[in-house]
Amino acid sequence: MPTSSKKNFLISVVIPVFNEEKNISLLLQRLLPVLQPYSYEAIFIDDGSGDKTASLIKNLAKKEKRIKLVSFQRNFGHQQALAAGYQYAKGEAVISMDSDLQDPPEIIPRMIEKWQNGVEIVYARRSRREADTFFKKMTALWFYKLINFLSDTPIPENIGDFRLLDRKVVNFLNQLPERSIFLRGLVAWGGFTEDYVYFDREKRAGGKTHYTLMKMFNFAIDGITSFSIKPLRLAIVLGFFTSSLGFLGIFYALYRRLFLPHQYWVTGWTALFVSVMFMGGIQLLSIGIISEYIGKIYQQIQQRPRYLVKETVNL
Length: 315
Prior knowledge:
By secondary structure, this protein is of the alpha/beta class. 49% of the residues lie in helices and 17% in strands. Strands 7-5-6-4-1-2-3-8 form an eight-stranded mixed beta sheet, sandwiched between helices. Helix 1 (24-35) links the parallel strand 1 (10-17) and strand 2 (39-46). The longest helix has 34 residues, at 269-302. The chain is elongated, with a radius of gyration of 25 Å.
């Protein structure tokens, strides 16, 4: 363990799980030896799994008190599971990671070393993503390009939720009142000192990914609308642009009617169809953008809890 002013500390590892029974034992076989030199707790957040994930973790927790479990009443989503882990974590440093072993536990000591040297956020950045498909790599690239273009807070690219947070950062996140959360953005928004460790992304250890195309799309929409009002301004710009085209069309039609009354002119079906479809598309896009923000306001004023806990073990 590196020498530092930060000694005798507790490391909390937060691991959201959803139908990951094939990966729990494999993860612990690699994670626990890495954590052995430190005082630690491994907190699994079961996000409403329908398989034996929760029962497997409970059996392991009976043998090892440092393994802990929070079970949700139902599935509330990955970001809410992470938020719950931050609420229950007691460590001076809190590490979040996935359970599929695409986040290698072996780089955790390097993250802790940077934290001991004064860094408040240590991101694990993917230097290579050979295990991911071309489609996933490209969509991730464009997602970060788009959200950083729209957002006033730059979000580090090519990272996931594998990171170390100082207790100060965790306390900050726990105090935020948002119901719809995008933690990758919130972590960056706080303006804490940050650094990176790099790793090669591995293949998923077992099972199938739970991030479908629709879930990735919803995640992207949540991220963009949580950190920028530029889409609303875009709707205004589009409205102004289409209105300007409409006024130009009116002036053109009046000019032809008043000053060129004898010129042969038949209104074309194509022009009418294109204009209707164009205007309709812009209107639906604008309404959709506005509705997304209204939906977030609605969820916020309901003041419902982010998640419901069914049971806890060793907590």
